[in-house]
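Exercise: predict the fold of this chain.
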Amino acid sequence: MSMKQVILRALALSIALGLVIFAGCRYTPPESTRQQAIYPEHLENEPDIRIRIGEYGSPVTLLVSGPYKLEVTHVGGRKETGGGNSAVSIDVEATQNGVRLGRDLFTSASIIPVGNTRLGLRTQIDGVHSAQELSGSLHFNRTKDSKLQAIVEIGLEEYLIGVVPHEMPASWGTDALKTQAVAARSYALYHIKTRGNKEYDVKNTVMSQVWKPVTRADPRVALAVNSTRGIVVLENSRLFPTYFHSRCGGRTADARFVFQQGDITALSGVDCKYCLSKNAPRPWSLTIALDDLSARLNERGLVTGQVERIRALSEDKQPLSIMRRVYWVEVTTKAGTRHIIPADTFRRAVGHEKNNLASTWFSVTQNAAYVTFEGQGHGHGVGLCQYGARYLAEQLGYDYVSIIKAYYPGTTVSRVY
């Protein structure tokens, strides 16, 4: 079937758009990006970023509000372009052989809006319907397990408008928001550089940075992003992954032990008393049955059999008797097998949400049936402590450059575009 026929078929399905925005830190980096990246001092233009917004096992509905371009790759490898001038609604799904757009099958398909056209995506996951309005281009391809992968491509600064308020409350101090904008921009640029040969640069979740499309920017967020436009964090003129987290608990973590990252001075950890202020979240506690803990660790393949004892270990794998940063967890089973597990890996297996093992700053006590973790902080602990940044900005009057240098020691800030 010709491209013209495909477009006409899509246009025949046109409906009036009724798009709704739905509401929706950083996690273990992919193996392929666990290195520092050399980045040029200056870019000619603001780069685009590719955001993977989802993988879908069932059809989604693509909504196009006006003129658009369509680029497809046929199953045989032939590429073709087309487009349309009217609103379109069409179902998209992955099959074992490619991406089905309406009734036509392609290896991949891209929709590029023209002018003020907006794109929408309606999905149904586990019986829950949702919809989101998007700007930029939208790309579809099939994953190895025959799911539909959707990737949005937009300008980096627009991306930050959708990241900052979902990683830090917009009500926080101006320089705290500026710090978050610069850290998020640096993190994103690092992944743009190191993942150039991949299908996407970042995900829209805590696996990268939380991003949600924004139709009207909060003025406070817009100020933080626009006033730091193009500014990133550099160590020895190199761009590195500027991790951040909610609250460290007393000292930020060394990335060498959390992410098996190379020896990056800026991510080696610093003392931080600021996130322990009265405005920060309180200490937390988690008590879990050893049977339940065993099931979670067995499910992740970290141990085999019933857990008998848990011990918190320091970076040099020595037992800890007080609450502090835990880098390794020693798990001994009833069979006598001893496992040494990286603390952040252990945390993710147990559950890293705020009502589970919220951070790796904790102490451990147990009896024959239960183990109790008492801790403070939230997140992996590497890099910028967001509650600490808030305190420095709002209570001590630090500007964003000073906050960045406090949490990423030995760094400079530089405008690269």
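Check your answer against the key: The chain has three domains: 3-24+39-203, 230-279+380-415, 284-375.
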